[in-house]
Specification:
Elements lengths: L2 H13 L10 E3 L6 E7 L2 E6 L7 H10 L4 E4 L3 H6 L5 H8 L2 E4 L11 H16 L3 E5 L5 H13 L4 H12 L7 H9 L5 H6 L8 H6 L6
Parallel strand pairs: 3-6, 4-5, 4-6
Antiparallel strand pairs: 1-2, 2-3
Length: about 220
């Protein structure tokens, strides 16, 4: 196929949403913001995503509303919100009738206030069981997002290792991002603490191994 026709074909493919090898859980793509449906919890749905795009912030938020998102949880710190042009995210959410929750966590780190974090998990778990659609984002939707989304999966009955594998498969990236975040999910799981301790001989792959070689769960 001549170069010119290749270029036209690619443009048409992108515009029509035909993108090869895109993650199967990707809800929206092409001109819309990326958002991934992670799991149904109760009668609600849990989503993960990168942060909205600053240049089309209002349009992205309107798209989330079209998907039926009731709550958006932002894990960016305030300086990040400003630097990335997202200072109006909360205001736009409220204008659209979307609940906005801001729980800042430092990049590549873990929550400093464990009690407040668990209260957030309690709140979101209740909303999900009431049928809400909850979307979580940090910057890339991998590290900090993995901590909160993983905690909700664990609260729903999954082991930390199973939650980590599911998130990585759905997102198409290794989740969470750092060893500290990985250990946070494992060590702060109350429900499966004893079971995990007994299965340390066959743990899920550590984060650094996942970066070297990743394959989706089948």
């Amino acid at each position: 196929m001549p170069y010119g026709w290749c270029s036209i074909y690619l443009r048409l493919s992108v515009q029509s949403g035909i993108i090869l090898s895109s993650p199967k859980h990707l809800v929206s793509q092409t001109m819309n913001p990326s958002i991934f449906k992670l799991k149904q919890i109760g009668s609600g749905d849990l989503y993960i995503m990168p942060c909205p795009r600053s240049q089309v912030l209002a349009e992205d938020m309107a798209h989330y509303l079209e998907l039926g998102i009731n709550t958006i949880v932002c894990l960016l710190e305030k300086p990040e919100l400003i630097a990335r042009g997202l200072a109006l995210e909360e205001r736009i959410c409220r204008e659209l009738g979307i609940s906005f929750v801001h729980f800042p966590i430092p990049d590549r780190s873990t929550p400093s206030n464990l009690l407040a974090f668990r209260q957030l998990v309690d709140k979101l778990e209740l909303e999900l069981k009431q049928g809400h659609r909850v979307a979580i984002h940090c910057y890339a939707g991998i590290g900090r997002t993995g901590i909160l989304a993983g905690s909700l999966l664990i609260r729903d009955g999954m082991t930390p290792h199973a939650a980590i594998e599911l998130m990585s498969e759905v997102r198409g990236r290794n989740m969470p991002q750092t060893q500290a975040q990985y250990e946070f999910l494992v060590e702060n799981d109350e429900q499966h603490a004893l079971a995990d301790r007994d299965s340390m001989n066959t743990p899920a792959r550590p984060w650094w191994q996942r970066l070297i070689s990743w394959s989706p769960v089948t």
